[in-house]
Amino acid sequence: MTQQNRLTSGGRIDRSKPLTFTYNGKQYKGYKGDTLASAMLANGINVVGRSFKYSRPRGIIACGAEEPNAVLQLGATEATQVPNVRATQQELFDGLVSASTNGWPSVETDVMSIMGKVGGSMMPPGFYYKTFMFPQSLWDTYETIIRKAAGLGRSPLENDPDRYDSINQHCDVMIVGAGPAGLAAALTAARGGARVIIADEQNEFGGSLLNSKETLDGKPAAEWVRAVVEELATYDDVLMLPRSTVNGYHDHNFLTIHERCTDHLADIAPVNQVRQRMHRVRAKWVVLATGAHERPLVYANNDVPGCMVSGAVSAYINRYGVVPGNELVVMTTNDYGYQAALDWADAGRKVVAIVDTRETAVGDRVEAARKRGLNIISGSAVIEVQGSKRVSGVSVAAISASGSKVIGSVTKLKADTVATSGGWSPVIHLSCHTGSRPIWSDEVVGFLPGKTVQKQLTAGGINGQYEIAAALREGFEAGQKALAEVGLAAAEVVLPKAETLKLSAPMSLFHIPHLKPTSQAPKQFVDYQTDVTAAGIELACREGFESIEHVKRYTAMGFGTDQGKLGNINGMAVAAKALNKSIPETGTTIFRPNYTPISFGAIAGRNCGELFDPKRYTAMHKWHVEHGAKFEDVGQWKRPWYFPKAGESMQQALNRECLAVRNAVGILDASTLGKIDIQGKDAREFLGRVYTNAWAKLAVGKCRYGLMCGEDGMVFDDGVTACLGENHFVMTTTTGGAARVYEWLEIYHQTEWPELEVYFNTVTDHWSTATITGPNSRKLLAELTDYDVSNENFKYMDWKQITVAGVPARVFRISFTGELSFEINVQANYGMHVWEKLHEAGEKYGLTPYGTETMHILRAEKGFIIAGQDTDGSVHPYDLGMGWCVSNQKPFSYIGKRGMNRADCTRENRKQLVGLKTKDPKQVIPEGAQAVLDPKAPIPMPMEGHVTSSYWSENLGHSIAMGFIKGGLDKMGETVYYPLANGTVIEAEICSPIFFDPKGERQNV
Amino acid sequence: MFHIYCPHCAEYREEEEFHAKGQAHIARPLDPEACSDKEWGEYLFFRKNPRGLHHELWVHAAGCRKFFNMTRDTQTYEIKEVYKIGEQPSVVAE
């Protein structure tokens, strides 16, 4: 294929480096320095996609981030698929594979376009809402078809092979944009000695200077750019980031920069390179030098491929050596539009006409065009375009001075390209991210950045300063201001001399009139990506949407991946006219991060795969893995769930483990329980205030179970605390509650009772805990210690500092199974040693490892609660039948006391925790099942409570369950029913939750 | 993301190191038993949600683990001041 639109010289491309790329399965050539878009235009590719709603053919319209149409799918393999790539921002590399995302079966022959043509008038704004909402049951079907038809790219089905990264940055001055204003600001700040970061989304610095033929100090502007970049590179404290989009401007001068490190090199990043990097910048001052986007005009059939914005036409010619057509018609409301015609003529192609909507224009660019003998048609507009897959001609007519109606007869001109300029829209997106409302300027004919609370400066095009001299001056001034603000001396900078061109006043015109009313004229597109037309916006206003935010949502204007960069202002102007208001009265929608779409990879950075979430392992984890444990996540901990033997089902394993504990001895890794070391002379007093029970008399060497409530009186954690010394305790918490309890203690100490002398430290990871439990546990422990562990010497609820397996250990004689138990705590790194020694000695006693599930069953046999399973933040200790754990004697009104005495907490018929015994002993009620008194009651049945814990108990030979029943503690022996989703009903008898060893004799032997 | 000055560390740190803990200066009644259910309910549940200046309790959770107060504008997200527990704000709504 030849590059029929490529000029033989000029531009910033390297003609000695040809590149091959694929678009929709066909191979094309381009050059190094091309974007995918410039290479497509060079090859005369007109259609780059089909429109979202009407399926109309669409071509490239712009040359940067604002491009709404050329949104392509990239990727040579399934794993490297990238949706949402703007061809105008994607640098060409050899072997690039691209495809259009809309259009079925292809963009050239699209079935849906018939829908668009026939159904055009039948698809007004709100069409989907109005048409497909009913019946709702069919929405899933509709949605599938609509989505397939619309097609906005797709995600890869395989894992991304590339690596992504993030980095934290700090600087004095963050400069966004490396056009004339940004470079002048950077040069000034750098010379003044500031730490500077300057980022630009393009592959090289220079911004608009790269697209123009303007001179600085009489030389091509690009030479000044090169000199500045070279100087900036000499400063250690200046970080230059090309190919880096500042995507978000967040609170307190925090900015996120999306750097594309290798997207321009290949489909997959080269070995050992990061594909994209997210810079997280905290800047003392920010200079926004983001420039402006040219606005296209809104006219009939303005979406036919070949309709472009005029600045883009100049950029393709000057920067890429590509003339995107043969016969050009320019339509402009201002002097800048003339530049496209001048550049087009310089490239040796035919300028058919410059259609100026103004009656008179006398600026220097206008004069230049006049001198070149270009055909200027004043006071007129291109009211309609002919053509379908490419512009074939235009209709030009005189319009009224206000631009509100056509006043002359129509002349048809032959042309294949229409370049329009409706003026410029400052790129205020980042300023909007900070919450600043933009302000309309009649002079600039655009929205300018509003007031901000951030330490932010703006310079150049973002302020409506489009002339290079003004942009340079504003950049310089912003640089000096930033230097002064960060406490540095002013810098010496001599700005280059720019050409000063006289400008004539622009006309404030957005929507070109047609012979027919807007609703009947051919479509006049406002937002290309979401297919919003001027007629659609007018209709929305007629239907009563007056707020611009509502118009936006109803029509979907600005909802595309381009966020309406080209269309929003035009849309507001159309709405303003329809509402008979001014643009400032109509207001504007604002922009949110991100400025351009960003890959999930860049957001995730390294936080994926293994590093997605931290995992916590106990010191004995390796042993568990080697012994076939199945694991359960408890918070971030990996806890053994059960230890199946070969061929065992889960239930078989649980049955075996449960029997072993009751009949011999079991061992549990309890290292994950939260442990908080508490010291200080007021530690005891403090415990009394945060637990519901009494702590004043707990002797050194003793342990006690405690319940912790919130100020509302509801249980939120529990655990055993041991008294290590008169002023020293160690508190255990639930595995998942450790961090919360720790913060709970701190907040009360620091904010309510700072007068108490008490200190907390989290020591969970310092200890490994092996719990041995069962009738043989004492014999086993005795083998590993010289200490006398008899019942007389080592009583229930005692703890002892002794030596176990040769290492110092804190052994707690406490029990969560109801069996004789010892919890052996050793320094964490001794954990595996002690664990293995216990197994060596324990074999003859039938020592059986068990996991969390068996732990749950055994404690449920005893009616012991698990905070978070049998409590849900709405139950107090009395609801749990644990009034024995609440002291009313303590002088201090401990946390929860007042709360659990509220009227609602003391009323009758609260849900109370009871045991549940199924009539059919084999049936296990599902946890969460709802209790009813009459299973034949009409739906919705009155619900009496629910099941919180439910298991098969092999020890008892029947199922056991705990659950809440209204007034349950007074309903012992009564029957409740659990209707299940499958239509069956389980009948159960309310009983004590203590199913096993109700007198608690087994733990006390 | 906020940039927060921890009055205990005497340094600016990233918001990621901190947790917000709600409205500041909610003192626990000295004699809870003397509170009516209504008073206790107000202490427990009722919080301000102002547009503008707000005094908040924060904790430097991944730092020094100390609590402190912050006066913050809920509209602009400006942090007007930070001050230690037991101190009173100097920036207050009119």
TrEMBL record, chain A:
Protein family: Belongs to the GcvT family.
Domain called SoxA A3: residue spans: 522-606
Domain Aminomethyltransferase C-terminal positions: 911-997
Domain FAD/NAD(P)-binding: 172-429
Gene3D superfamilies in the record: 2Fe-2S iron-sulphur cluster binding domain, sarcosine oxidase, alpha subunit, N-terminal domain, FAD/NAD(P)-binding domain, Probable tRNA modification gtpase trme, domain 1
Protein name per its UniProtKB record: Sarcosine oxidase subunit alpha
Record Pfam families: Fer2_4 (PF13510), GCV_T (PF01571), GCV_T_C (PF08669), Pyr_redox_2 (PF07992), SO_alpha_A3 (PF17806)
UniProt keyword terms in alphabetical order: Aminotransferase, Oxidoreductase, Transferase
Superkingdom as given in the UniProt entry: Bacteria
Species name: Amphritea pacifica
TrEMBL record, chain B:
Gene3D superfamilies: Folate-binding superfamily
Origin superkingdom: Bacteria
InterPro entries linked: SoxD (IPR006279), SoxD_sf (IPR038561)
Family matches, as Pfam families: SoxD
Name of the protein: Sarcosine oxidase subunit delta
Organism whose genome encodes this protein: Amphritea pacifica
